[in-house]
Amino acid sequence: MMELFLTVFSAAFFVTVIRTTTPLLLATLGGLIADLGGALNVALEGMMLIGCLTAVIVSVYAPWYVAVAAGLGAGALLGLIMAFFAFRLKADIILVGFAINIFAAGGTVFALALATGGDKGTSINLPSKAIPAVDLSVLSNIPVVGPTLTAFLSGHSVLSWFAAFLVFAVWYFLYRTPWGLWLRGVGEYPAAPEAAGIPVNKIRTWSLVVSGALAGLGGAQLAMFNYVGFTREMTAGRGFIALGAVLLGARHPVGALLAALLFGAFEALAVVMPGLFNEIPAEIIRMIPFVVTIAALVLFSVRAQRALAMRGAK
Amino acid sequence: MALLEAIGIGKTYPGGVVANDGVNLVIEPGEVHAVVGENGAGKSTLMKILFGIEQPNAGRLLLDGREVHFANPREAIDAGIGMVFQHFSLVPTFSVYENVVLGSEPRNGIRLDRQRAIAEVQELSERFRLKVDPLPPVRALPVGQQQRVEILKALYRNARILILDEPTAVLAPQEVQELFVAIRSLVAQGKTVIFIAHKLPEVLEISNTITVMRQGKTVGQVKTSEVTEKSLAAMMVGREVSLRVERKQTDQSECVASVEGLRVVNARGTEVVAGLDLNVHAGEIVGLVGVEGNGQAETLEAIAGLRSIAEGTITIANENAASLSVLERRGLGLASIPEDRIAEGLATGSSVAENLVATRLNDRRYVRNGLLDLKAIKAHATKLIEQFSIRVGGPSYAVGTLSGGNMQKVVVARELCEQPKLLLVNQPTRGVDLGATQFIWRTITDARDKGAAVLLSSADLSELLALSDRLVVLYRGKIVAAFVNTPDLTPETLGTYMLGLSTQTADEMKAALK
Ligand SMILES: Nc1ncnc2c1ncn2[C@@H]1O[C@H](COP(=O)(O)OP(=O)(O)OP(=O)(O)O)[C@@H](O)[C@H]1O
Ligand SMILES: [Mg+2]
């Protein structure tokens, strides 16, 4: 137990948490934007997965930032496709989302086999690149706190810093700009923006494109930093956890950050625990993030129902 | 020259409903132009065409003499047309100022300029006498103020022509007067108002010109000064209508429902019904009088089982009903026509036939062995559509496509196709046209004549006076006066009690509180 304690309060564990949180946070922000616009994006999982593979394959031939941009672009394109089916062809958005997830699960394996010349499990034979970590060891020159600062702040992915900035940017967009107002209006009561001459479906389409882009970006982080390379179904439900995190975070960007951190922390625990407790099967430990997701959502909805009852839904 | 002119407008909805058929409308600058007609006459459709929401299949629009086409509301807004819908289009959690500026926000870089938005809303609200606080979320405001927000929204977009689709249907009488003050101030400042309403006295009071529509066609345009309520009604319906109902002598000895010491506390913890004692007898209509929000709606909901009570007893047909479910109460012979037909009375996405059997799903005529008998359900619906003259393409049409009055008829048909013992009615004719009002009044009175005990609440005093045997005035959740309905009883008398200006003594009330 002591060892677990020491591990959890170490700088290394903090760095792990940030690493596990980043893809989740990006996907959660994506889920948040779509959800606030009233277009529930259940395809985050598939978009992330395709983002992973696209980033990995492109990174073989291009610099890391081009690969990251490609992951993002793949997600955005999927968002656009989803919007086309849901809003132009009026298909049910949940079904379209699941179609994308299923397509992603199978399609990535197929594309992987093509790219690797037959390997259907991993991209281990591809010389894919990683996203660089930001080295802040200069901070250790600061007296007293320098070494600690370095230990905590150095070594994060570029995208982790970007994701932290995005939390602020998304908040600013949602609550300070006219377009944020439009998006929230479209999600809450579309008849109002419609009557005000705001193109509702265009806004929703954009929200899905951005949502997909963020999920794709999360995928790039996952396959180019957390792991380097692609493994089939490597997102392992993160897209769905992100959907849960949107709700758990009370549909607010800061809440999304906290919820993503919570899930990230449990995932990090699942990473470090097998080394500490070899009597517990690793499979059980890997279940932790999912069990926590379910528990958190149940708690959340109990609380929400109670709040609703308080407000007097008769 | 006319400001806005619609010539030969035709509109057929997908599904084949002809809503407008060669409609003409001429709006002069600076007038209040009323458009009247029965439910389903096509008034809202015409307005949606003027505002670019619906596209006409035929006809032309002229604005300032030049032909215009509005492909969407944005283009109509840019041309100076504003519209307040029958059902408001406000985002509930947004503040008043956010709702007003939505879509045309003042900006400061990429930022919404909050200060300027608030200041502009305040300035408009003062200039046009539409008092409203810019900061609270609109869902916290009463309907009357929400409507002002809608009007401000149009004015903020520099509307020259303001279309108000049944603005008074949701307002209490005092609020109607406030709205009229605002409309007069708008016209005084050069705006033009198109106004739709079903209550002819309102139309006669506020308008300069009236266009009458019937079954998708314009019947004519008249100067308000040249018509009377009677001639206008005849023009609208195509026959003479009288809004008087004859009531039979009934035996009113059996007490069907009674509440004792009823207290209801709402979600905010305020007591909305404060110790109410009331009996309703077979064969009588008891009218609940009061300014909206004085406990009438809550009383009805408590009796129907839709709202939990804090204290007191409710007896229906000699059974203690306080702990019974809605369905069990219905089993005792309760029927209820709720205030808000869209939110509480109907499933708008479902068909007319489905809505008509929705309260009878354990009736063996329509459901057997857990399966719906679609044939019987359809036959039932066809019969009721005929009997209640509901204007709809057929039993399988979604209720949401019906006009307001016809939706209400669906509710009335469902609740009254079998004789109830106790009937609860709240705002039965809100947004309902003259002909349908007459019909609904007749139907409620028939139920009474056949022995139903009826509890009626309405914002329309003339309705309460026309239908009730006894009237009970509620103020802050308490009975402050009770009357046996006689021709001498006037709205003015009721008014002083409604506003809490005076209270009857227990003795005075006794005679009318049997
Ligand atoms: N979206 C729609 N699809 C199909 N039919 C429609 C639609 N909207 C309206 N209708 C039909 O068109 C006709 C005219 O409706 P409209 O709403 O214009 O009437 P209205 O005069 O405004 O009536 P009310 O006084 O009840 O508001 C009605 O028969 C209605 O059922
Ligand atoms: Mg209408």
> Could you give the count of β-strands of chain B?
24
Please outline the major beta sheet of chain B: 6 strands, mixed
Gross CATH architecture of the largest domain in chain B:
3-Layer(aba) Sandwich
Q: Kindly give the count of domains of chain A.
A: 1
The counted number of beta strands of chain A is: 2
Could you please say which CATH topology of chain A applies here? ABC transporter involved in vitamin B12 uptake, BtuC
- Report the mean per-residue pLDDT of chain A as an integer: 89
Output the number of helix runs of chain B.
Answer: 18
CATH architecture of chain A: Orthogonal Bundle
Q: What does this molecule look like?
A:
The complex is a heterodimer of chains A (314) and B (514). Chain A has one domain (2-310): Orthogonal Bundle (ABC transporter involved in vitamin B12 uptake, BtuC), CATH 1.10.3470. Chain A is 75% helix and 1% strand. Chain A has helices spanning 2-8, 11-36, 44-61, 64-88, 93-116, 146-153, 158-176, 178-188, 191-195, 200-226, 238-248, 253-276, 282-310, and strands at 133-134, 156-157. Chain A has a two-stranded antiparallel sheet. Chain B has 514 residues and is an alpha/beta fold. Chain B folds into three domains: 4-237, Rossmann fold; 244-333 and 420-514, Rossmann fold, CATH 3.40.50.300; 341-418, no CATH class. Helix content of chain B is 33%, strand content 25%. In chain B, α14 packs parallel to α15. Chain B is globular and about 70 Å long. In chain B, 48% of the residues are buried. Chain A binds chain B through residues 176-178, 181-182, 184-185, 188-189, 191-198, 310-314, and chain B through 72-74, 77, 83, 85, 87, 89-94, 98-99, 102-105, 107, 110-112, 153, 266-268, 301, 306-308. The structure holds adenosine-5'-triphosphate and magnesium ion. Magnesium ion (MG) binds at residues 43-44, 86, 165, 403-404 of chain B.
